[in-house]
């Protein structure tokens, strides 16, 4: 164990050891050396096969420095000399990220750490859980007692108070929605923020927030590096919209989808109870329709789901009105789920409004739920033989202001622990998150360079279409365009499907 590890850390680390040596394999034959040469950063020159067990063909154990052990499986070439390789593919293996978890080398003394936590952007279920687990994780795993909460988002570094955070202070906060630290949009002044970090002697910065927040974290990290400070900057990605790329999903998303069920259910009960009744539910999702898509798939009561990624039209053959009429004739009621960012082009055409932005530069949207409800009512007002009833439900803020559910709580804990282990081990400028099921350290630029969106030519959207039986609103031209965009927007998607393994060091 590294001498810099504090006594409390060395006691706790083995409990949490996450050791997957798959790619830390030490090649012992020419064949192996060739196939694993891509992973040379983790090649352990002093590793050795335990020959006694190996010769008995019972176990094949590779040992190396600092207790490194690989229990490998037998290979034909172990007992058939000069076994020819028939195919040796040298195709790219995809992008790999460093796997998250505790490390043998720790770069901070417990009593030297002065950590701070900040939450930025919109609310999201689980924010308090992440705060709690960072405070408790630092304390119980590494013996750290100095953690500061920055109030009110980024501007809190230079314009607001701070709160000392201890395990006692945060003990029950995971049961509450929101964030005990408060949050905000806008107010990112890099030099003032880094001045504040430097003046206070903070050396670990934990930043919880969405895509905008991670961009902010990235420039803070760059400025810290420029000043040569020993300050680790770790991002924890948050958003109910699930629009952060690379990671499997963001925390709070599951909870939001679950809560959305209550609104959809209410819309269904209402619509079933009246003649020709339409329940319209508006859900969040500014640029990405994941909440609407998953809430629809989970519910099975939704007849039509409209998201920003899938353009639609109202009038004429194949349009929304035609579909509504058909559904009402078939079953006498229907439920429409619409993501807040859907149909904004139609709305803008109608309303001729100027583009507006919030303090962080995000597009301020027109209320598409109210608009579409009005349009449906106007359309059927012209059809006296088909009077309709319409109930509009807008649960948008309700789905993000609640505490996280059980699975998000567990997820938040893993994210917090990954961030702590990374910072204590001296890594910086990273976001934590699962990539194909493995928690990893991801460089900031990878999560800020694009947004995660529903790919409407992909399987999940096809599943939704077959579940609701709604029109796709697409013609051949749209499909080709969407395919081209998919390729240019997500150039590394297929590579990321392999990005599950990271060297342990
Ligand atoms: N490009 C950027 N550079 C520096 N700071 C940024 C940048 N974009 C956003 N920020 C800052 O990050 C913070 C949060 O951004 P934003 O309001 O967009 O929310 P978010 O983190 O994307 O979360 P969400 O959209 O899920 O609510 C704000 O304080 C904003 O000033
Ligand atoms: O009204 P606010 O706080 O700006 O937040 C609204 C936005 O926040 C989000 O929930 C993302 O956090 C979006 O879905 C939504 O557009
Ligand atoms: Mg955002």
From TrEMBL:
Q: Which GO terms describe its biological process?
A: fructose 6-phosphate metabolic process
Q: Name one Pfam family in it.
A: PFK
- Subcellular location(s) of the protein: Cytoplasm
Specify residue ranges for compositional bias: Basic and acidic residues. 475-486
Q: Where is this site: Important for substrate specificity?
A: 212
Could you tell me which InterPro entries the record lists for this protein?
ATP_PFK (IPR022953), PFKA (IPR050929), Phosphofructokinase_dom (IPR000023), PKF_sf (IPR035966), PyroP-dep_PFK_TP0108 (IPR012004)
Supply the alphabetized keyword list. Allosteric enzyme, ATP-binding, Cytoplasm, Glycolysis, Kinase, Magnesium, Metal-binding, Nucleotide-binding, Transferase
Q: Which Gene3D superfamilies match?
A: 3.40.50.450
Residue sites binding Mg(2+) per the record:
211
Q: Where is the Phosphofructokinase domain?
A: 116-421
What this protein needs as a cofactor is: Mg(2+)
Q: What does the record give as the reaction this protein catalyses? A: beta-D-fructose 6-phosphate + ATP = beta-D-fructose 1,6-bisphosphate + ADP + H(+)
Q: What is its main location?
A: cytoplasm
What GO MF annotations does this protein's record show? Answer: 6-phosphofructokinase activity; ATP binding; metal ion binding
Name under which the protein is recorded: ATP-dependent 6-phosphofructokinase
Please tell me the species this chain comes from: Acer yangbiense
């Amino acid at each position: 164990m590294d001498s810099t590890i504090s006594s409390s850390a060395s006691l706790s680390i083995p409990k949490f050891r996450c050791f997957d040596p798959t790619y830390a394999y030490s090649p012992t034959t020419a064949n192996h050396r060739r196939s694993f040469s891509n992973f040379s950063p983790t090649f352990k020159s002093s590793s050795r096969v335990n020959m006694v067990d190996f010769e008995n063909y019972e176990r094949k154990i590779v040992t190396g420095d600092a207790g490194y052990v690989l229990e490998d499986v037998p290979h034909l070439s172990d007992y058939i000399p000069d076994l020819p390789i028939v195919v040796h593919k040298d195709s790219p293996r995809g992008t790999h990220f460093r796997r998250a978890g505790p490390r043998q080398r720790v770069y901070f003394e417990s009593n030297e750490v002065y950590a701070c936590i900040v939450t930025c952007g919109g609310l999201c279920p689980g924010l308090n859980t992440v705060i709690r687990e960072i405070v408790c994780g630092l304390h119980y795993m590494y013996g750290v007692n100095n953690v500061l909460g920055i109030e009110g988002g980024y501007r809190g570094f230079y314009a607001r108070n701070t709160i000392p955070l201890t395990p006692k202070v945060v003990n029950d906060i995971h049961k509450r929605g929101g964030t005990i630290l408060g949050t905000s949009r806008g107010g990112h002044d890099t030099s003032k923020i880094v001045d504040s970090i430097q003046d206070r002697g903070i050396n670990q910065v934990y930043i919880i927030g969405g895509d905008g927040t991670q961009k902010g974290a990235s420039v803070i990290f760059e400025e810290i590096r420029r000043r040569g400070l020993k300050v680790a900057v770790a991002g924890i990605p948050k958003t109910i919209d699930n629009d952060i790329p690379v990671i499997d999903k963001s925390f709070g998303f599951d909870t939001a989808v679950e809560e959305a069920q209550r609104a959809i259910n209410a819309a269904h009960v209402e619509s079933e109870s009246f003649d020709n009744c339409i329940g319209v539910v508006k859900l969040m999702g500014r640029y990405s329709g994941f909440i609407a898509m998953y809430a629809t798939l989970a519910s099975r009561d939704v007849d039509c789901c409209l998201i920003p990624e899938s353009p639609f039209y109202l009038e004429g053959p194949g349009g929304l009105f035609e579909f509504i009429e058909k559904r009402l004739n078939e079953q006498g009621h229907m439920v429409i789920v619409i993501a807040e960012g859907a149909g904004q082009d139609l709305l803008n055409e109608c309303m001729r409004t100027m583009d507006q932005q919030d303090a962080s530069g995000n597009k301020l949207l027109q209320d598409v739920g109210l608009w579409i409800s009005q349009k449906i009512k106007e359309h059927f007002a012209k059809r006296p033989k088909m009077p309709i009833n319409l109930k509009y439900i807008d649960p948008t803020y309700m789905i993000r202001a609640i505490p996280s559910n059980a699975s998000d709580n567990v997820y938040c804990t893993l994210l917090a622990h990954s961030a702590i282990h990374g910072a204590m081990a001296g890594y910086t400028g990273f976001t934590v998150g699962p990539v194909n099921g493995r928690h990893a350290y991801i460089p900031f630029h990878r999560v800020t360079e694009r947004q995660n969106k529903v790919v409407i030519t992909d399987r999940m959207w096809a599943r939704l279409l077959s579940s609701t039986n709604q029109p796709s609103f697409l013609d051949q031209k749209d499909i080709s365009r969407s395919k081209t965009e998919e390729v240019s927007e997500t150039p590394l998607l297929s590579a990321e499907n392999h990005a599950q393994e990271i060297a342990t060091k």
